[in-house]
Amino acid sequence: MLNIKPVSDLRNYNKLLEEVTNDQPVFLTKNGRGMYAIINIEEYDRLKASIEIVEKLKQAEKSGVVDLSDARKKFGL
């Protein structure tokens, strides 16, 4: 289940940060709309690394080094 809080809950940020786990970010809303996601630093690092890998694969595909559709089949993506 998503953990959604108003941004005003940051006033008590210690309590809010206790709710952040590797697999459970806290989403903050402002004026009823989603604005921010607070994630654990380990999860941030994992997401960043994943994005970097995808970007490198896209660059490799553009240069003709690798075909992403073959990689997707190979790894079941």
TrEMBL record:
- Write down the InterPro entries for this protein, in alphabetical order: Antitoxin_Phd/YefM, YefM-like_sf
The family line of this record is: Belongs to the phD/YefM antitoxin family.
What is this protein's function per UniProt?
Antitoxin component of a type II toxin-antitoxin (TA) system.
What is the protein's name according to its record? Antitoxin
The organism of origin for this protein: Candidatus Enterococcus ferrettii
Cite the source lineage. Bacteria, Bacillati, Bacillota, Bacilli, Lactobacillales
